[in-house]
Amino acid sequence: MRGPPSLYSAATVATWRWHRMPRKPLAFLTEDGIVGAMMCAHDWSDSPLGAPETWPAPLRTAVGLMLSSKFPMFVAWGPELTFLYNDSYAEILGQKHPRALGRPFRDVWAEIWPDIWPIIEQAMAGRATYHENLPLTMQRKGYEEQTWFTFSYSPVRDEDGHVAGMFCAVTETTEQVLATRHRAEEIERMRGLFQQAPGILAVLRGPQHVFEIANDAYLRLIGREDVVGRAVAEVLPEVRDQGFLALLDEAYRGGEPHVGYEMPVLLRRGGDASLEQRFVSFIFQPTRDHRGAVSGIFVEGSDVTDAVLAARAMRESEEGMRQLANTMPQLAWMADPDGVIFWVNDRWFQFTGATPGEELDGGWTSFLHPEDLLQLLATWYDAVQTGQPYEARARMRSATGEYRNFLLVAAPLRDALGRIVRWFGTNTDVTPIERAQQELQEANTRKDEFLAMLAHELRNPLAPIATAADLLRVAGADPERVKKTSAVITRQVEHMTKLVDDLLDVSRVTRGLVTLRRETLDFNAIVAEAVEQAATLMQAKHHRVTVELLEPPAWVDGDRTRLIQVVSNLLNNAARYTPEGGIVAVRVTADADTVYASVEDNGIGISAALLPHVFDLFTQAERSPDRSQGGLGLGLALAKSLVELQGGGISAESAGVGQGSRFTVRLPRIERPASVATSHALPEPAGGALRRHLMIVDDNADAAQMLALLLESAGHSVAVCSDAQAALDGVVASPPALLFVDIGLPGMDGYELVRRLRKLPETARACIVAVTGYGTPQDRARALEAGFDEHLVKPVQARALQGILARLTG
């Protein structure tokens, strides 16, 4: 060959190189093997041994003998015990070969040096030693391994008779040691299996049938444990007159096995106990020694008493069993050993509407669903062939034509010999159970979806609220900053309130029955508020966000909160899947019929396999190696549903992994309205005529004070009461024109309070508004029935207060 292929081992490549180097052959070095060739080509100038032609005669003799042997050998010579070895020993070295050649013994086998140094000392002291299966932990293949070796260390003397080195003949016995251990473990395992076997097992030796071993089942059968070393006649004297000893003698003398089926035997189980009848099936199998002569009996069998008695009882009560089966709610049936059904109970006929002739002639298969029939029959015939219990599921047609799900089970009934005499089976209608399980699973899924969606939707507005709260603490007296921050909080709380209104009704959200609050909207404003919601996450990752709005603005008919939620979800999605410092571009465009909002990023992109499923619920494939982007897989699915509910659509585009992605929302465009209300402030009093005295009744001090401050900022005087009695006293002293009453008050609830207020002349005609955290239609109806004029859900919206106060002043 011209050059060493790269797939060759290092030793082969080194040998190839040494074969090509010029060298001077030496008589005691053979080139027949790899190591011999390496030694011929080795540069010995820096070795303590010097050039091979200068080696002393004993060393050359030992090396020549070693290289000529097919047995693993090595020689260690000189003060450093320079290491020389043959081809067979190279296999023991593993990855240490060929670097071990000519190196000090201690460096070659550093990991086992503490174990072998005492042996080496004996050899260097002139004493040969032999060691069998010595355990050593070696590192010769790049990892630690437990090995065993059998070897001898012999001293090698120089010309002056002094020990100058040592010679070792060695063989690795790792495989033999492990095999021996494995055999011992297998023997012990087999002994354990013998002892734990369910059938009766015993080994008897000699013509006296002395117990050599008996397993637990045998000892349980006879009720004794002290049997080993004692003859059968001594342990079980009662069986002599029953013919069992004669059968043992016959098997021992004749050398032929004897088989007994359901043999009755009277046993005195447990010392002085009375005789008890048992039934056993067994075989007396003669065993032979190495000369072929019968040396004992192997007893194998089983206690079939229960089976015999059960068969008797079954035969005696078969008619009773049929009568009982006719009272069962299941469809019961019996089949012969070949699987042919010969009897079904009355319930079967009631369910199928068939006649006895149709069932027993094989017509029962016509009541099974055609798609289930082949698999069911295959499973049934397999059970009949193997004798294993049968279980299957199939759909069966009732007398009304309805298919229902059934669990089919059958068990073989056996005689004392273990032969199947019949099959008894039942078909149980599991349709109600499966429906209940499905409903439970769907309910659990809806619960999980609801909780996940709740957390997902509430986090978006919480971020700007938290930031705004921090700004208010540091804003000082900057009115402009306070105004802007308050506006952010107002919008986000309004957004959260609408979300909570929808999310509280779990069934509506999980089933997609969301009620939309549609209005005419400037889509530029929708996108701007969504960008505001996502700003915190974008800023945290130092994204560069560009926003291009449409001029003049385009108008859509939709739910403001839900549309903000859609765009916000797309922005959050872009933020999660765009690396730090990336670019996110938001564009609003339109044509004559449609308004478009696109969110484009230069993030990790979407694979072709994932792209068709990005809008599926809970879809969250591996879109980055560390999955650091988080998310619950709800945002895109929710966005798609909400957009489609409002007559629009949504699409995703990506050139592939690492190429970024673009999501586009489409909504029908409408004509610009004549006017759109945008103010959310309370009405400012135009003079003393609009100033009113109001009252707030709420045991939550913070909520009451915040509402009072809001009303006072509109120029009204406000009294705050923490319970119903204080309110009743307060309205007499200073009658209010308008009351805001919490439902959940201590002592007397809001319903009872409003009834009493209506009876007082001071508040009989006052406007009374219920303020509560319960917002279902039933809650509203109950409040109005109790006497309230309005029903507001916490937190109270400024817009709702504006309407109530406007009506009051009007």
Automatic annotation (TrEMBL):
Keywords: Phosphoprotein. SMART domains: HATPase_c (SM00387), HisKA (SM00388), PAC (SM00086), PAS (SM00091), REC (SM00448). Residues 317-387 form the PAS domain. It catalyses: ATP + protein L-histidine = ADP + protein N-phospho-L-histidine. Residues 390-442 form the PAC domain. Residues 693-809 form the Response regulatory domain. The modification 4-aspartylphosphate is found at D742. InterPro entries: CheY-like_superfamily, HATPase_C_sf, HATPase_dom, His_kinase_dom, HisK_dim/P_dom, HisK_dim/P_sf, PAC, PAS. CDD domains: HisKA, PAS, REC_2_DhkD-like. Residues 453-671 form the Histidine kinase domain. Its EC number is 2.7.13.3. PANTHER family: HYBRID SIGNAL TRANSDUCTION HISTIDINE KINASE C, TWO-COMPONENT HISTIDINE KINASE. This is histidine kinase. It comes from Pseudoduganella flava.
